[in-house]
Design brief:
Number of strands: 8
Strand order of the largest sheet: 1-7-8-4-3-2
Distance between the termini: 69 Å
Helix content: 40-55%
Number of helices: 13
Structural class: alpha/beta
């Protein structure tokens, strides 16, 4: 069997990067043409976005520990991998994410009251997907890749230039759903971008247990071009997403982006990562912090960092306050709301089941 065309996969030896760890700019023939409009103001905006996403994450984590939320999957360390692509989307483009795409939800404009209800276990979906063009969080690993591909195929049939973004982790690349999505996307040249946030662990399993080669090589077997990108470099992620979205809009078909990043927190708040990784590894990745890297880049550009940090702090504090209020004041659903939205129009059978459930709930209340 012939080896994959090397032009189908970029960044295999070294993930594509334009911001070095010290914040200095590195030349990139691939990415630089797509960053010509990024000045100090644009980079500041990306910085503030990442600070707000991190504060959302840390506040939700605290709310879980305090009993106001039931569960939380942290994204600490992955902010650049989400903010970069999110800011390359058009509002009419759709995002199909897993349970860790909080950055996309925030930047897409999710109502935090609805968002909090999901993680308080008061709602199945949380928000109206059509209002923010983002599907509800998907718990089934990799299933959203099929949904994204289906949307992209429909978009192409409708002669629209809206694209779909499918977000998943490294573990999902071993799932059948993701591979089936790659088959369909390739066969129909669907305008879908697959964003794999390789945070090094599929729950507790290292990525090397799943694959002895970079994950960016996998889609090339389906004829889908891919880019392996430094997922802690917000500018590299922004440029890579722009490339992929432009390719999809112009009829070039799907693209796969492997964002090489790291989940510094637990898989969820029920997980203890100390059982399967050592602190030296965490410290090594902490030194690659995506927010601090942009701080250094802005300082090198001559930005007033005191003012930049203060703006970010104020906006992050406002966000945290809003989330806390939403979590603390969320109202539980009614006993029979589980029957809402099962069908566009309720059936007689569904209404009968609702009545039976309501009667059962009332009987329990009587016993109490």
């Amino acid at each position: 069997m012939p080896a994959p065309d090397p032009q189908l996969a970029l960044g295999l030896d070294h993930p594509l990067r334009v911001l070095d760890l010290d914040g200095s700019r590195l030349p990139s023939d691939v990415l630089d043409p797509h960053l010509t409009d990024i000045d100090e103001t644009a980079l500041t905006n990306l910085y503030v976005d990442m600070v707000r996403v991190r504060r959302l994450d840390t506040e939700a984590f605290a709310l879980t520990r305090q009993g106001h939320l039931v569960l939380w999957p942290p994204l600490l360390g992955q902010e650049a991998a989400q903010v970069g692509p999110a800011r390359a989307l058009r509002q009419s483009d759709w995002v199909f994410g897993s349970y860790r795409e909080h950055g996309f939800a925030l930047l897409k404009g999710v109502d935090l009251a609805e968002f909090a209800r999901v993680w308080k276990a008061y709602a199945h979906g949380g928000w109206d997907p059509h209002e923010i063009t983002m599907a509800p969080a998907q718990i089934i690993i990799g299933a959203q890749s099929l949904h994204a591909t289906g949307f992209a195929m429909a978009s192409k049939m409708d002669e629209s230039d809206d694209v779909a973004l499918a977000c998943f982790g490294d573990g999902a690349t071993s799932e059948g759903d993701v591979n089936e999505a790659l088959v369909w996307a390739s066969a129909f040249q669907a305008p879908v971008v697959f964003l794999c946030q390789n945070n090094q662990y599929a729950i507790s399993e290292l990525v090397r247990v799943q694959s002895g080669t970079p994950l960016a090589l996998r889609p090339t077997g389906f004829g889908i071009p891919s880019m392996r990108v430094d997922g802690n470099d917000v500018l590299a992620m922004h440029a890579a997403a722009r490339i992929a979205f432009e390719r999809a809009r112009s009829g070039g078909g799907p693209t796969f982006i492997e964002a090489v990043t790291y989940r510094r927190g637990p898989h969820t708040t029920t997980d203890d990562p100390k059982r399967y990784r050592d602190e030296a590894e965490v410290e090594a990745w902490t030194a690659k912090d995506p927010i601090e890297r942009v701080e250094r880049a802005l300082a090198a550009m001559g930005a007033n960092m005191d003012a930049v940090r203060e703006e970010a702090r104020i906006r992050a504090d406002e966000l945290a306050k809003e989330l806390r209020h939403a979590a603390e004041h969320a109202e539980p659903p009614t006993v029979d709301s589980i029957f809402d939205h099962v069908y566009a129009q309720p059936t007689k059978r569904l209404e009968r089941q609702r009545a039976e459930h309501r009667a059962f709930a009332a009987s329990i209340e009587g016993i109490r």
